[in-house]
């Protein structure tokens, strides 16, 4: 009989009773749950052919008081069961190794597992709104303070639906599902990196690159990343507090974002030429992570202040960024067209005026990019995604507002016939351990352009954001309009070799 194999590293949890041959397996090997919350525990039971068992389940602590949704079942064929493991609210935070007892007529099995209980957040959550000064304020909103964006104030709604006429704006990370597999960085060749590195690797030219994203975790193929946590809602943050100096993405949040921020940073800045893992676009740059996403969603107010901070601008309650950046990657967006006077318009103009290059993912909605901000903001380099055949990726937003395309991949395809999915391989984590994972989305096309922008700035520090955008656009490879099918449109593919050339 085929044994169920736990993916990745982990504890060997399989048990097997010899005499009557009921096999039982648990996954995953490590669970994370809030005190008072629950986590999904999967139990797989394999009886021998033709045999049936009346099985009883029991948990053994500590922590005390753990419960499952089910205590007994009949098993007559291989069965996989998702059990909600509930953790009592009074459970102290910490690491535990409880066990699940599987008992039947003539035998029993003890399956141990690792459980991390994290503190449930006591602080109240709430939605944040950015309102222009002088706007009439709907009832129920409480003013917090002036925003770092002049002319706007921050308001908070503790509970209840959004007041009429006021939209609670949420931004979304442009990420598509991914599957962990091993390397092939076809996407670097597609953008002419080998030619570019002949001219400039950036290795001797340190520069700071920023990202507003979901946070970052230490990885052996990455230099230390500086940063700050701008997620103000303790419920959404995953670290149970508001803003703080630690830009790490909590592990349990990383499981939901796919470690989005670490993947984005890895594409730009993975350690290169170090005989390990993957290469990043820029070989000498360092990263600053402004964490504004507690999961796959974040708030305008946090993301905008994160953006201003990265550029070196003051944000109330937060120390100035000691490492102001020259380029900022924005792999997220929300619906909006960035009209003059809007928060994203004002924020991006302020940052561009400081000479900081802004690069944004065009979005994964297969729609015109002008409906999404910050990609639609003037002066921001908006990046669409291509597949391994230089066609527009099926999910990529498009249209005249897309300045450039770069590979964003297509995980379900293998058009280059290398036996690997055509995703972008970057730094990631599997079961809490650092590794390398494939990803797709305009979220991962944008950091290729951000890394390229930083490489150009390393060579020509005087380039303005507009000059740099024009250089990237004018030196890009024109692609046949049919590559944009089904909507014919102009497409230019990032070509870093040509951009750095004479
Ligand atoms: Ca925090
Ligand atoms: Ca490396
Ligand atoms: Ca492939």
UniProtKB/TrEMBL annotation:
The active site is at residues 213, 260, 443. It holds the Pfam family Peptidase_S8. It is an enzyme of class 3 (hydrolase). GO terms for biological process: proteolysis. The gene is bprV_1. Belongs to the peptidase S8 family. The keyword Protease applies. Residues 207-476 form the Peptidase S8/S53 domain. GO terms for molecular function: serine-type endopeptidase activity. This is Extracellular basic protease. Its EC number is 3.4.21.-. Residues 234-257 are annotated as: Disordered. Keywords: Hydrolase, Protease, Serine protease.
């Amino acid at each position: 009989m085929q044994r169920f194999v736990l993916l990745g590293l982990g504890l060997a949890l399989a048990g097997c009773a010899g005499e009557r041959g009921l096999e039982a397996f648990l996954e995953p090997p490590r669970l994370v749950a809030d005190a008072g919350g629950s986590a999904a525990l999967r139990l797989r039971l394999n009886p021998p052919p033709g045999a049936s068992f009346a099985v009883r389940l029991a948990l053994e602590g500590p922590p005390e008081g753990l419960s499952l949704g089910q205590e007994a079942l009949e098993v007559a064929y291989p069965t996989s069961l998702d059990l909600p493991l509930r953790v009592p609210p009074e459970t102290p935070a910490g690491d535990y190794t409880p066990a699940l007892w599987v008992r039947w007529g003539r035998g029993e099995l003890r399956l141990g597992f690792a459980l991390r209980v994290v503190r449930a957040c006591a602080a109240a959550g709430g939605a944040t709104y950015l309102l222009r000064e002088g706007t009439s304020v709907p009832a129920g909103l409480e003013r917090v303070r002036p925003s770092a964006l002049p002319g706007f104030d921050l308001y908070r709604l503790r509970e209840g639906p959004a007041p009429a006429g006021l939209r609670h704006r949420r931004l979304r990370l442009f990420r598509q599902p991914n599957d962990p597999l091993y390397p092939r960085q076809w996407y670097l060749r597609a953008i002419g990196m080998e030619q570019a590195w002949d001219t400039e690797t950036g290795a001797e030219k340190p520069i700071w690159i920023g990202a507003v994203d979901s946070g970052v975790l230490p990885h052996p193929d990455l230099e230390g990343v500086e940063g700050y946590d701008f997620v103000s809602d303790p419920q959404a943050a995953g670290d149970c507090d508001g803003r703080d100096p630690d830009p790490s993405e909590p592990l349990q949040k990383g499981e939901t974002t796919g470690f989005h921020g670490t993947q984005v940073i890895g594409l730009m800045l993975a350690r290169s030429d170090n005989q390990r893992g993957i290469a990043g676009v820029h070989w000498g740059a360092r990263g600053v992570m402004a964490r504004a996403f507690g999961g796959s969603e974040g708030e305008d107010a946090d993301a905008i202040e994160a953006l201003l901070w990265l550029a070196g601008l003051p944000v109330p309650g937060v120390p100035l960024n000691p490492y102001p950046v020259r380029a900022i990657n924005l792999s997220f967006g929300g619906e909006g067209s960035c009209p003059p006077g809007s928060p994203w318009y004002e924020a991006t103009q302020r940052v561009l005026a400081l000479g900081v290059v802004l690069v944004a993912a065009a979005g994964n909605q297969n729609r015109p990019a002008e409906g999404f901000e910050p990609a639609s903001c003037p002066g921001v380099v908006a990046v669409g995604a291509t597949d391994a055949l230089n066609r527009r990726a099926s999910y990529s937003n498009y249209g005249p507002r897309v300045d450039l395309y770069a590979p964003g991949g297509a995980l379900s395809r293998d058009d280059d016939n290398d036996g690997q999915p055509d995703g972008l391989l970057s730094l990631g984590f599997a079961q809490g351990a650092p590794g390398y994972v494939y990803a797709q989305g305009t979220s991962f096309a944008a950091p290729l352009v951000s890394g390229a922008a930083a490489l150009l700035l390393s060579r020509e520090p005087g380039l303005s954001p507009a000059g740099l955008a024009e250089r990237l656009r004018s030196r890009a490879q024109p692609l046949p309009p049919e590559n944009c099918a089904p909507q014919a449109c102009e497409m230019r593919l990032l070509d870093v070799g040509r951009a750095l050339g004479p």
